[in-house]
Design goal:
The complex is a heterodimer of chains A (about 140) and B (about 110).
Chain A (H helix, E strand, L loop, with lengths): L1 H11 L2 H18 L4 H11 L2 H12 L4 H12 L1 H13 L4 H7 L5 H9 L2 H8 L1 H9 L6
Helix pairs in contact in A: 2-3, 2-4, 4-5, 6-8, 8-9
Chain B lengths: L2 H26 L6 H8 L1 H15 L12 H15 L2 H17 L3
Helix pairs in contact in B: 4-5
Classes of the chains: A mainly alpha (about 140), B mainly alpha (about 110).
Chain lengths: ~140, ~110
């Protein structure tokens, strides 16, 4: 059990490489959207879902009704329900409190890594996101 | 939107996202899924992940949806290194480095 935990931690560690720029990017976009630092961190900690976070902050800036902000972010997150179903055959036997804790970290990266090892492809795609956003904003251009 | 409202939105989003995450793992638990459901779920990885990645490569939002030449070789390098070395960090670094250097060259 202990070694399984350690092995999993080691397997997941590389994803930090992509998560750090992703988090930094969200910090920039959230701050530019006018959110105070506490709320930017609040979104990251409470939602923990990259795409939905960006959606929520962008839509918030558009001045639409609150219900629309919530619905659009949740629509983006619905795919996580499928991740949840997909990992049930692997983790369904765990006690409820463990499953309740595990799902906090359920995202495309962990989902991809666990059953099909396609995390590689996703991570490669994700690595392009911060660069793309930086370009859109014209960073590094004179 | 006032500060208090934003906190409300954050709280609702957090709670609802957690519920979505727990939805199936919490509910299905140890029960076995029917064969047809498992068969469909097996293909979820190959269906969803390219669906997430492909638009970023071919129609990047950063370029307003236009094809950008630098992204295609960057994706190819990342995919190739990934298939060859099976190393996440190496894959990410190779893809990002290719994109950055092609960008610096003005491609």
């Amino acid at each position: 059990m202990r070694s399984a935990f350690r092995r999993s931690a080691a397997t997941g560690l590389p994803f930090v490489v992509v998560m750090v720029p992703f988090g930094a990017l969200f910090g920039v976009i959230g701050t530019e959207a006018g959110l105070p630092l506490a709320q930017v961190m609040g979104v990251s900690i409470a939602v923990i879902a990259g795409a939905a976070q960006f959606t929520a902050v962008q839509v918030m800036g558009d001045g639409v009704p609150v219900a629309v902000v919530i619905l659009s972010a949740l629509a983006v997150n619905l795919r996580i329900a499928m991740y949840s179903a997909s990992i049930a055959p692997w983790l369904g036997a765990a006690p409820l409190w463990q499953r309740a804790a595990i799902v906090c970290l359920l995202a495309a990266l962990t989902f991809a890594w666990v059953p099909w090892n396609l995390g590689l492809m996703f991570a490669a795609g994700l690595a392009m996101v911060p660069g793309a956003e930086a370009e859109r904003r014209g960073w590094g251009r004179a | 939107m006032s500060v208090a409202w934003v906190w409300g939105v954050i709280a609702v989003l957090g709670a609802a996202t957690y519920a979505i995450r727990l939805a199936f793992l919490g509910w299905i638990g140890n029960r076995s899924l029917p064969g047809w459901a498992l068969r469909h779920l097996r293909y979820k990885g190959v269906a969803v992940l390219p669906g997430l990645v492909a638009p970023l490569v071919v129609w990047p939002g950063a370029a307003g949806g236009a094809v950008e030449t630098a992204r295609l070789p960057a994706a190819a390098v990342a995919l190739g290194i990934g298939a060859w070395r099976r190393d996440v960090v190496l894959t990410v670094v190779a893809g990002a480095a290719t994109l950055a250097s092609l960008g610096a060259l003005g491609v």
